[in-house]
Amino acid sequence: MRTILVIDDDVDLADTVKSILEYEGYDALVSHDAKDGLRLAKDKIPDLILMDVMLPGMSGAEAVRELKADPLLRGIRVIFLTGLVGHEETSLEQKGLNVDGQQYQTLAKPFENRKLLEMIQSILG
């Protein structure tokens, strides 16, 4: 079973995504802050992380830098979730988010469940 870690400070959204993922047959883990999420990632080694861009204490981009600096975790794939609104939202979703020269797929919140699942499927196969 594939494991997906959701790191998002919006408790309701994270719990909803967890339920959707479990319904689709994934093992889903949730963390509401980046530091705890990184600890959980190190402990469980998920196949994919759904990472909020804006998190308290440490941004999603900072968390990904730490993730990619760790030899044990650097292979974990990441999809960024963003609550940005307006033109930036469209731009981020179309181009993805660049962190240290690496492009990451980005999904704007609120999103359709189908779109999220399609992105996950395209990454995990």
Describe this structure in words.
The protein is α/β, with parallel strands linked by helices and 125 residues long. The protein contains 5 helices and 6 strands; from the N terminus they run E-H-E-H-E-H-E-H-E-E-H. It has helices spanning 11-23, 34-44, 60-69, 87-95, 113-124; strands at residues 3-7, 27-31, 48-52, 77-82, 97-99, 102-108. A hairpin with a 2-residue loop joins strand 5 and strand 6 (102-108).
Strand content: 15-25%
Strand order of the largest sheet: 2-1-3-4-6-5
**Helical percentage:** 40-55%
Query: How would the global form be characterised?
Result: globular
Alpha-beta content class: alpha/beta
The poorly predicted ranges are 85-91
List the domain count as a whole number: 1
The CATH architecture classification is 3-Layer(aba) Sandwich
Please name the CATH topology.
Rossmann fold
What is the straight-line distance between the termini? 12 Å
CATH superfamily: Response regulator
Number of helices: 5
Number of strands: 6
The CATH class name reads Alpha Beta
Report the C-alpha radius of gyration, rounded: 13 Å
Short description:
44% of the residues lie in helices and 25% in strands. It is α/β, with parallel strands linked by helices.
Question: Could you name the key traits of this structure?
Answer:
5 helices, single chain, six-stranded mixed β-sheet, 44% helix, Rossmann fold, globular, alpha/beta, 125 residues
Walk me through the topology.
Elements: E1 3-7, H1 11-23, E2 27-31, H2 34-44, E3 48-52, H3 60-69, E4 77-82, H4 87-95, E5 97-99, E6 102-108, H5 113-124
Parallel strand pairs: 1-2, 1-3, 3-4, 4-6
Antiparallel strand pairs: 5-6
